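Field log, afternoon session.

UNIT: design team B
ACTIVITY: writing a sequence onto a fixed backbone
BACKBONE:
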């Protein structure tokens, strides 16, 4: 991993249901560019409001999976995990954040966050956007596709 970090404090957020290759790319980018990462995990209450079309594991299971990922990659000392109860989370209350790490499909939310930060008198966040990670058939990896058994967590197309 790159030891030259660009930002002191960054945030990354998501539901992280069934950690897949796309999630891992997003998380690794956050730890690559941030000395400290505020990792915000959608709470059960927020997940319910999102009305996902697939089942989502309970918060405590998802947080255990993230903790396991952090331990496995020696990232625990850089991370602080927080519950995410709405679409904005810590980004609208922590003036010290410098960057937000997003994927292409959530970049629009980061721009919205910056508008709200400006209205609050907070500095805008640098938006670090990663490209969507594609499955072997060229379509982005997503939890929905995995839950529908189209692909596995690595993006391999399922053979039915």
């Amino acid at each position: 991993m790159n030891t030259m970090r660009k930002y002191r404090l960054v945030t990354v957020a998501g539901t992280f249901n069934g950690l897949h290759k796309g999630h891992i790319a997003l998380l690794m980018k956050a730890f690559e560019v941030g000395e400290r990462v505020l990792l915000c995990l959608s709470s059960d209450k927020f997940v319910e409001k999102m009305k996902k079309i697939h089942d989502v594991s309970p918060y405590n299971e998802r947080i255990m999976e993230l903790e396991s990922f952090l331990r496995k990659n020696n990232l625990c000392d850089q991370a602080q995990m927080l519950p995410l109860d709405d679409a904005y989370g810590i980004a609208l209350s922590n003036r010290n954040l410098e960057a937000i790490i997003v994927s292409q499909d959530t970049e629009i939310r980061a721009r919205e966050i910056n508008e709200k930060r400006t209205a609050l008198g907070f500095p805008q966040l640098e938006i670090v956007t990663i490209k969507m990670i594609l499955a072997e058939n060229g379509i982005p990896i997503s939890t929905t596709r995995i839950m529908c058994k189209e692909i596995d967590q690595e993006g391999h197309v399922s053979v039915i």
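LOG NOTE: The chain has a mean pLDDT of 93.
NEXT ACTIVITY: expression trials, pending approval
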